[in-house]
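User:
I would dearly like some help making sense of a protein record. Take your time, and here it is.
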Amino acid sequence: MLNQDLWDRCISRLEADLPEKEISTWIRPLRVILSDDQMTLLAPNRIVMDRVKSDFLGRIQRTMSSLAAYDVVVNIAVGGTSSDPVRGASSNGSSAAALDDTMPYGRGKLDPRYTLASFIEGKSNSQARAAGLQVASAPGGIYNPLLIYGESGLGKTHLMHGIGNAILAEKANARIVYVGAEQWFNQMVSAIRYGRQVEFKNFYRTVDALLIDDIHFLAGKEHSQEEFFHTFNALIDGRRQIVMTCDRYPRELDALDDRLKSRFTWGLSVPVEPPEFETRIAILLAKADVLGVRLPEDVAVLVAQRIRSNVRELEGALHRLNASARLTGAPITAEFARTTLKDMLASYDRAVTLDNIKRTVAAYYNIRLADLTSVRRTRTLARPRQVAMALSKELTRHSYPEIGTAFGKDHTTVLHAVRKVAELCREDDRLKEDYENLLRQLTN
C-alpha cells in the first residue's frame, strides 16, 4: 500500500536528479493523497499543475512505481485540502477541468531535515552559517535583510530552511513563509488574473519572516520588482525578517532595479563558496549517516576528490551508490564506487584537463599560453605557473612527474609549487581569491 514514506523517498530521488530550484518551485508545494495503487497530487494552482503535468508527472510515476514495486497511477489536480473533490490530469493521459485556481499563498513548506545544526560548516560557508545563527536568534534585527549568494547547489536553500526552522523553534506561532521567487511571481500573476491583489499584498506584507529563494528570477520583470519593492519596504519597516538567496551578488544583476539593488545590501550579504576537500568529505559522511548508509571513509575521500563543484552533485553520487548497493546487495567499497560512478567520474575527468587548466590560467592572468611552460622566472610568470601546477594536482589524477612534463619541469618543481601555493593561500588573501576564482571557472 502506498504511504507517506514512499512519497518522501520519491522526493529524495527527485532531489538527486533535479535542481533545487525545480524541487522548491514545483514539487514541494504539492500535497498528496494516497490509496492502494493510486496517488493524487494537489497543486496550489493551475500554473503549477500544468508545469508538473508536462515536465515531472511521468518521472514521478516511474519513481513511485519503482519504489512500490508495482505500477502506480499518479493523478494531479488543483485542490486545497485532502477532502476536496479531485479533478485534473493523470499520468495515464486523462484530463478534466481543474479545481479553483485561487489558492492560498506561500504554499512552500519548510523542510524539517534542513537545520542549522545539520549544515556542515567549512571555510567556504562559515560566514553564511554564522549570519544564519545570528538572524535566527534575533529576527528583524541588524542583519535585515540577509542575502546569501553563490552558485547553484552550494547549500543556500539548506541555510534558508535552517533559519526558518530555528525561528519556529523559538516561536512556534511565528508566520514563516518560504517561497521561490518564481513561485511568488506565479502567485502574483494569478492574483492579478483573479482580482485578488489586495489579498496577495496583505499576505506577504504581514508575515513575521519571508524567506525567498532565487531572487535573481525577478531580474527583468519590472512589475514584479515594483511589487516586491513595496513588500520589502513594508516588512523592513515592520521589523520583519527577510532572507533571500541569489546566484550572484545583486549589484551584478544588470536587469534588477537600482532601488532593489540598494535595499538588498542594507543588511548583510554573505557568499557561499564551493566546499573545500575536507568539507566535501564531511558532507558525504554526514549525508550518509542521515540516509543510514554505511559509507567507508576511503570511499568518501575518493568521491570528494573527483566531484568538486557543489553539494548537490555529491548528494547525487551518494544516492546512486546507495541505490546500487541496495539493488545488488553489495557493500560500498572504493572499487564498487569506481564502477558505479564510472560515467559520472569520467565526465569530471574530461571536463578538467591539463590543457584546459593552462588555457584558463593564462587567460585569467593575461599572459601567453607559452609563458606557462617557458624557463623565464619573473614573478609575473612564476606565480601563475605555480598556481596552474597546483590546480593541475588538485583537479586531475595526473602524477607529479606527468604534470611536470606538461609544464616542461621536473616533479620536484611541481611539488614545490603545490606547497608554495597552499602556503600563500593561507597568508595572501588576494592569491587565495585568485585560486578560488580559477577553481570555480574550471569546475562549473
In short: The first helix runs from residue 4 to 17. The chain has 20 helices and nine strands. Confidence is low (pLDDT under 50) at residues 80-104. The beta strands are 31-34, 38-43, 73-78, 88-90, 146-149, 176-180, 209-213, 241-246, 268-271.
